[in-house]
Amino acid sequence: MATTADTVASIREDRDFLGYAPYILTAVAFLLLFARPLTLLVRDWWHDPDAGHGLLLFPVAIWLAWKAGLRRDRAPNVALGIALIVVAVGIRYLSGLAAELFTMRLSMVLGLVGVITFFAGFRQVLHWWLPFSLFVLSIPIPAVLTNALAFPLQLKASAMGAWLLEHRHVPARLMGNVILLPGRQLFVTEACSGLRSLTALLALGLLVGGIWLRYPASRAFLVFITLPVAILVNAFRVFLTGFLVYYVSPEMGEGFMHLSEGWLLFVIAFLILGLMTWGIRLLERRISRKQEASHA
Hints:
By secondary structure, the chain is mainly alpha-helical. It folds into 2 domains: 34-140, no CATH class; 144-295, no CATH class. Helix content is 78%, strand content 4%. The protein has 11 helices and 3 strands. It has helices at residues 4-33, 35-47, 54-68, 78-98, 101-120, 122-127, 129-137, 143-167, 195-212, 216-247, 255-295; strands spanning 173-175, 178-181, 184-187. Strand 2 and strand 3 form a beta hairpin.
């Protein structure tokens, strides 16, 4: 026969379960509604080299959200949350009809923002700005935008690479995205445009700035500086490939050696970004000390 204590414990367990029921039902409904864009996104992360950074960014975003935790002053914003969810569902439906993956995936992010706003308020969304930003960056860029960005970057890398080759006394002639060397043509393809490294560096700049920098202006500057860093490093990669092809062997522009150059220069770009972060952080400390001294 059950005692009074057992009955009270059973009632408490039922209440705890009922308290979590809305969150469980919302999670199930969210997964059912956005199952297709989520599945296709994970597939692209796994199979598309240009989207592979999502395999790293998404777990990092989850970990950062867990580490940041919930705000103590969080408060549900039911009206705004419902409005955002309705807009997200509408975009999800229309993008599904048009088979437009990028918009469909963004609707998933907007839906998540709406759910969090509904239960914890928009301040919680702002509190998780870094995880949300990394999640957005993990979504592959549409092919139309990729093609529009890749070709100008190819031309810029080709022009800067040819200029560096000429200044190192390598007879190089530029024709669009092709660098003509004696007895050899060096094609600066879309893979060598630097778009992939730009996306990765942008994510790294956002992550490093969000963790180690204090002021929004400092974080914005670090993210902005990733663009010229990516362009310069990729131009140096084109130059290095042409230099090695001309002076060492044509095989240096193909296969494993060419891929190794790309990884090495990406590491160098990351180190440059790290040094810039260190310098900006030192500047922030000086500014903080001056502000503390002025208020003292």
